[in-house]
Amino acid sequence: MIIEYWLDQSVPMIFGLLTLALALTGAASLALFESRWTRGWVAASSGVVAPFFTAVAVLFSLLTGFAANDAWERVRQANRAVLAERDGLVALYDVSLAASPDMAPIRATVIRYLEAVMVDEWPLMRDGRTAPSATAAFSELLAELAKPSLSASAGLAVHETLLASWQKVRAARSDRVVLSEQFSDHPKWWTIFVLAVLTQVALALVHIGKPIPAAVAISLFTVAAVVTLSLVAVKERPFDGPLATPPTALAEALAELRKN
Fold first, then answer.
1. 3-state SS class at 177
2. Which keywords annotate this record (predicted)?
3. Distance, CA of 117 to CA of 250 (rounded, Å)
4. Which of 40, 80, 118, 148 is the most buried (most CB within 10 A)?
């Protein structure tokens, strides 16, 4: 719930909330080793050497790198799916326009499907859902393409080309829907956050008795962690969040097909 609330915010709020959270944990880490109530325990821990810090920091950086790669790969997959769906629909429309006899019902169904995706389905994808109107239009398109009379009137080669384009659209649509249904990996984000806090604790630990250097080191790490994790967070969900993949390619295709 907390992770989803954070990821649903605008870009400034994502940065701001994470900054607040890590600033509080950084201050708590510094206070833990510099407070007068913990001096006795701190004195016993003063032998920890500086290289100890790298053990926790490396784990944090590795997991953050994996999370960033995963997020960017989903964005690339989403873009490819939208472009492939656009290309398949345009191919369907162009072949039906160039072939004989006239295939106006197929072209009309392609436009209805695009309109349903743009108007009804795209907003629902933020919640991982599909629109019944888009599903119905897509099924209607298959019904038009599967008519046996199409082979006799347009030729087998044209019919096979139309069906191949429809299959391309179906695969792309399936990829798009699957990507929209993938919600955030909460254990991954909690693990990253815990490792960030442990890195702050490690920095404070290796600077025992030096509050100003400790504060500087923790502050620099906190700023770096906030920038990195926030950039990953805004790309975490390809069809949701403040930088969700826009339907630009489909919108441009719809506008172009309406002119024909």
1. helix
2. Membrane, Transmembrane, Transmembrane helix
3. 9
4. 118
Q: Do the beta carbons of residue 150 and residue 157 sit within 8 Å?
A: no
Cα separation, 33 vs 54, whole angstroms: 19
User: pLDDT digits over 61-80, tens only?
Assistant: 999 999 999 989 999 999 99
How is 56-82 classified by DSSP, letter by letter? HHHHHHHHHHHHHHHHHHHHHHHHHHH
Dump pLDDT digits (tens) for 82-131.
Answer: 999 999 999 999 988 887 777 888 999 999 999 999 999 999 988 888 99
Amino acid identity at 220: L
Whether 238 and 75 have beta carbons less than 8 Å apart is answered as yes
Cα gap 145→231, rounded to integer Å = 44
Q: Is the pTM of this model over 0.90?
A: no
Specify the DSSP element, H or E, that contains 108: helix 104-116
Q: Read out DSSP for 31-43?
A: HHHHSGGGHHHHH
Distances (CA, A) of 175 to 6, 182, 238: 26, 11, 12
